Amino acid sequence: MSLLEVKGLVKRFGGLLATDNLDLTIKPGELHAIIGPNGAGKTTLISQLSGTLRPTEGSILLEGRDITRWPVHRRAALGLARSYQITSVFTEFTVIENVMLAVQARSGSSFSFWTNVHSDAALVEPARDILRQVGLLDVADVPVARIAHGGRRQLEIAMSLAMAPRLLLLDEPMAGMSHSESKEMVTLLRRLKGQYGILLVEHDMSAVFALADRITVLVYGKPIACGRPEEIRKDKAVRAAYLGEEEIAA
Ligand SMILES: Nc1ncnc2c1ncn2[C@@H]1O[C@H](COP(=O)(O)OP(=O)(O)OP(=O)(O)O)[C@@H](O)[C@H]1O
């Protein structure tokens, strides 16, 4: 069974068709990238999957369950995590404290009990495991305010993992990163794929082509191609859509 199955998805903003009859599947453990020129509808798609935007038509199934009309928190409880939604990073807290709070949130306790987090040993081990997974264990005790941008983006992913997701929705995780930070993020995502289904929206084509099992190309909301990286690289319609953008031709 597919982890995610999107059928006939349509999103209209007045007269503008931002998602145009989109079908998409993500298999368990697959890293599926969505690429497309600016305004192609990538963020609109992620928002419909995470539940912040209601589709005009079509359906979204997660592990066979129709979640099209479910609110964000119910989707999250079923295992859908959108990494950029982590706006509640406490910069004055350490890296591990932030992950412990996310682990605590998953277990259903309220954020208002944050003062207890420091002393709760049951949160420490899961948080350390996650930090080990994302490669942040060596900065576990550093306040978030003092870590670099790349480390913060890794922390956002760590906090998504604390939600015990099945499908991670990543909206431009490499944005604003230096070359070496992007390389680290590629290494991290390579480690995570296989364990989690990942939908990746990313403008960094070298990262996309290095990581994706499959790529869907959107142009004006419409999927014009879907396939393995080597198929997408050769695809005539894709090349035409990206004319002048030399990365894809590389
Ligand atoms: N809330 C909204 N109301 C009206 N139009 C919108 C809204 N959100 C997005 N759009 C339009 O829908 C289209 C798709 O936008 P979207 O942001 O999803 O594209 P994108 O592929 O994520 O672009 P980028 O690569 O620049 O982030 C654009 O034409 C955009 O102007």
Per the principal axes of the C-alpha atoms, what is the gross shape? globular
Cross-sheet strand order for the largest sheet: 6-7-8-3-9-10
CATH class of the largest domain: Alpha Beta
CATH superfamily of the largest domain: P-loop containing nucleotide triphosphate hydrolases
Radius of gyration: 18 Å
> Which small-molecule ligands are present, each listed once?
adenosine-5'-triphosphate
Overall mean pLDDT stands at 90
The helicity comes to 25-40%
Low-confidence runs of at least 5 consecutive residues: none
Q: What oligomeric state do the depicted chains represent?
A: single chain
InterPro entries: AAA+_ATPase, ABC_AA/LPS_Transport, ABC_transporter-like_ATP-bd, BCA_ABC_TP_C, P-loop_NTPase
Protein name: Branched-chain amino acid ABC transporter substrate-binding protein
Keywords: ATP-binding, Nucleotide-binding, Transport
GO molecular function: ATP binding; ATP hydrolysis activity
